[in-house]
Amino acid sequence: MSLSFFGQVAMLARESFNKRSELMMGASALIISSLAAWVIRYRMFDYYENAKVGFFIVVCCCLWMGLFDSILCICDARDVLERDKFSGLNPYSFVFANVVWQAVHALLQTGVLFWMTTSIIEFPIETKALLAPAMPEYLVTLFLITFAAQMLGLGVSAIVRTSQQALTVAPFILIYELIMSETLFGLPDAVRPLRETTIVRWGLSGLGTIFDIDMLPWKAETSVKKIMRQVSYQVTGQVNGEVSSSPVGGLPIPFFDKLIARLQDYITNFPLNPGVLGVNHNLPEYTATAAYLGHVWAVLGVLALAGIVLALVGFRRTVEIR
């Protein structure tokens, strides 16, 4: 007689709570979250670059925790599953039971990451709400990123036959996610569409959209403005010095003070082409609208669904073949 869906969820819960791996999962989430938050806490929202790197690290934490939490859950129990299939194991019920249990894990890991980052990092309080207040949006996005990573790991775990194979594949998945997300550097046009398949790309877009990081100043802009301000003071100071040392230095010159002030203001606020500085404040992946955030959440959901389908197909095939 086969176990029902809820019976298999209950069985997974009992087996998991009897393992020390549950405690290790919570401890690793706490350590990873605290280290990441401590590293990126300093002036994270002062500049666009700081916010992008900070959220990239947060997304990588979600990817790491989710992937390695689920990538062994099927292949590690392959022999037991092979035995249980003769006692009525339903592959669909088993996979969906794992999906539910991994969702519980994702919620716990996300809660730890949310708590640590919001406790250590000073988030902007004036962020406008899109679909909900910023902090609930942030929590939901973290959960979707982690859950999508878990479903990717679940799919891999169902396809491979041993835990050694799964751990061999995992680094390649991480490399693909980090490189093909186009976060670290640009991609050739021929492979650029592949970035749409990465969890990192959509996770970073979601977090950047919530906090509208596209509107933050770039470091290049700020540095150039400081340089222009220094140049304006030097130029106007030199002009003042030349006039003072000239034969008419002691005579008042009409409108001279206003002329110097205008010269100083013009140099300080000289209109610069952002493209020359490599600055772009119209990045489509950070469109701060409710519609775009909903689109990002939907794509993360589709990526999670793709992992579930992969797990169903892979699990049924590998169990039946052996």
Explain the layout of strands and helices.
Layout: H1 5-17, H2 21-40, H3 48-70, H4 78-84, H5 91-120, H6 134-159, H7 163-180, H8 199-210, H9 219-245, H10 256-268, H11 290-321
Structure write-up:
The chain has helices at 5-17, 21-40, 48-70, 78-84, 91-120, 134-159, 163-180, 199-210, 219-245, 256-268, 290-321. The chain is an all-alpha fold. The model has no long low-confidence stretch (mean pLDDT 79). It holds the Pfam family ABC2_membrane. It is found in: Membrane. One of its GO terms (molecular function) is ABC-type transporter activity. The chain crosses the membrane at residues 21-41, 53-74, 95-118, 138-160, 167-187, 292-315.
